[in-house]
């Protein structure tokens, strides 16, 4: 209930009592003590305007000053009658303090006509009860408002934190394939275009989706993510579009779907390739018409939602095999961003590793601040089938094991230790130096040897091309050409 209604109801209740008129609530300024009529029953606007009292002035001012209820006869010189009532000599004025956490913050008062002293005493008790009750109501209201302010401030802080964390500039990597990603985000963020994010697991699809949202004009509105592979079809539809109460067994309450929750913002549909045909049709309709129905309802709802979708599966193949609708594919694939696998941008491995050392290591006491050369070489040499997520987990764990200072080789998983450059068996990689694969031509064998030597040199230099070139006795320029030829950079 609104505070105004609570006060209004109480004042009306007083006004309806026999012989009572003009009840009003005053509030006072906590600094100056000056009070004004906050709400009244049966007073003109002009009277309300006139009803201002300095601290200690008139009856209202005295009640505020002393914190004690006063009853005065209308003919008393103390009664100022600032509101200009006619014939005040036939009335008494009852005024009780309103307290908030023990402090007087205002008054409740009423005019009482023709009461004998005994009746007047009953009325005083009533006015005091109303004043107490309003004090509680105001206190509760303030507490709720304070809680709301705290929650809003907290929400603002969290949103700012999210925004900061998912800034495009916080996506790490300077390989040219990543520069292309940044450029694409910048091109598309400010529009409402549907984006399809593709890339292996752990390459940063969700990260890019969030960055796109936070760089868009929708940044202040919700970002709602849903993994389409995580739920069975029946539940997925109700998650997406919501349902009416009783729409199916177990639908005990009406629930909004993610599209409704994301209204004004962005929805991120992860693993879109896993959608069943039935749901694909419904999604297609949302993309085309921006409208849908809750399950069990025939009321069409409209939504203003930007759609970002992600998949690590081969959608073209799914279309060819009849598992994915081609029309939906075209709707989703308006603009696509391809996230590179980490092994295809090895130069970024150490930059990312250091970024995660900073993220996880700086919270430790003592902090973990760096990676040893040997460990760096191992990170560089690994193929990272789980991509950035695998690297992130690996560093988070290494930080714990390191306990402070430096991450060393022994803090890395055994699988990585097995691939120390030069250790070809562990990596399951033929050929060893000089061992050409059976049936290979000379050119093929030389090519394989060259690649192997390059990899080893780069591994030992921690990815530093100049150092690798020196070790191999070739110029940096030739090194660059070879690295390019073998797709190592
Ligand atoms: N370029 C990057 N810079 C910094 N952190 C990254 C980068 N790419 C990925 N990450 C981090 O790696 C983790 C995995 O990323 P994300 O969840 O976005 O991957 P994904 O492509 O959605 O994977 P999946 O397909 O398995 O869901 C996240 O913690 C993310 O913050
Ligand atoms: Mg993901």
UniProtKB/TrEMBL annotation:
Gene Ontology terms describing biological process: regulation of DNA-templated transcription
Pfam family for this entry, one: GAF
Keyword tags: Activator, ATP-binding, DNA-binding, Nucleotide-binding, Transcription, Transcription regulation
InterPro entries for the chain: AAA+_ATPase, AAA_lid_NorR, GAF, GAF-like_dom_sf, Homeodomain-like_sf, HTH_Fis, P-loop_NTPase, Sigma_54_int
CDD domains per the UniProt record, alphabetical: AAA (cd00009)
Region (Disordered): 418-437
Ranges for domain Sigma-54 factor interaction: 171-400
PROSITE patterns given in the database record: SIGMA54_INTERACT_1 (PS00675), SIGMA54_INTERACT_2 (PS00676), SIGMA54_INTERACT_3 (PS00688), SIGMA54_INTERACT_4 (PS50045)
TM region positions: none
An annotated Gene Ontology molecular function: ATP binding
Protein name: Nitrogen fixation protein VnfA
Organism: Enhygromyxa salina
Lineage: Bacteria, Pseudomonadati, Myxococcota, Polyangia, Nannocystales
């Amino acid at each position: 209930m609104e505070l105004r209604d609570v006060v209004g109801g109480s004042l009306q209740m007083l006004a309806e009592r026999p012989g009572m008129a003009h009840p009003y609530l005053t509030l006072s300024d906590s600094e100056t003590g000056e009070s004004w009529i906050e709400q009244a029953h049966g007073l003109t606007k002009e009277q309300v305007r006139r009803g201002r009292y300095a601290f200690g002035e008139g009856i209202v001012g005295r009640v505020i000053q002393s914190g004690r209820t006063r009853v005065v006869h209308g003919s008393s010189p103390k009664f100022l009658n600032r509101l200009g009532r006619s014939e005040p000599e036939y009335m008494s004025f009852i005024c009780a303090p309103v307290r908030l956490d023990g402090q007087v913050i205002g008054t409740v008062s009423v005019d009482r006509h023709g009461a004998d002293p005994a009746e007047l005493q009953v009325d005083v008790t009533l006015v005091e009860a109303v004043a107490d009750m309003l004090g509680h109501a105001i206190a509760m209201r303030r507490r709720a408002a304070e809680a709301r302010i705290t929650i809003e401030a907290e929400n603002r802080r969290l949103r700012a934190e999210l925004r900061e964390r998912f800034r495009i500039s916080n996506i790490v990597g300077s390989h040219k394939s990543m520069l292309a990603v940044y450029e694409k985000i910048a091109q598309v963020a400010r529009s409402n275009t549907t984006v399809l994010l593709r890339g292996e697991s752990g390459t940063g699809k969700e990260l890019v989706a969030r960055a796109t949202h936070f760089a868009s004009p929708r940044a202040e509105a919700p970002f709602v993510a849903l993994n389409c592979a995580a739920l069975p079809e029946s539940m997925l539809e109700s998650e997406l579009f919501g349902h009416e109460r009783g729409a199916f067994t177990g639908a005990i309450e009406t629930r909004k779907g993610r599209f409704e929750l994301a209204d004004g913002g962005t929805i991120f549909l992860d693993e879109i390739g896993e959608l069943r045909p039935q749901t694909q049709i419904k999604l297609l309709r949302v993309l085309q018409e921006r409208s849908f129905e809750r399950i069990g309802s025939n009321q069409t709802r409209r939504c203003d939602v930007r759609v970002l979708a992600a998949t690590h599966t081969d959608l073209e193949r799914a279309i060819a095999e009849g598992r994915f609708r081609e029309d939906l594919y075209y709707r989703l694939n308006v603009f696509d961003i391809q996230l590179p696998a980490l092994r295809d941008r090895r130069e970024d491995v150490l930059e990312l590793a250091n970024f995660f050392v900073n993220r996880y290591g700086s919270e430790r006491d003592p902090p973990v601040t760096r990676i040893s050369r040997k460990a760096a070489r191992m990170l560089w040499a690994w193929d990272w089938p789980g991509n950035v997520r695998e690297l992130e987990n690996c560093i988070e764990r290494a930080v714990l094991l390191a306990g402070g200072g430096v991450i060393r080789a022994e803090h890395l998983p055994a699988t990585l230790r097995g691939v120390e450059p030069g250790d070809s068996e562990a990596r399951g990689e033929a050929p060893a130096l000089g061992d050409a694969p059976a049936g290979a031509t000379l050119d093929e064998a030389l090519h394989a040897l060259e690649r192997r030597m390059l990899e080893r040199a780069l591994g030992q230099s921690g990815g530093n091309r100049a150092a690798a070139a020196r070790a191999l006795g070739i110029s940096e320029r030739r090194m660059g050409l070879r690295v390019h030829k073998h797709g190592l950079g």
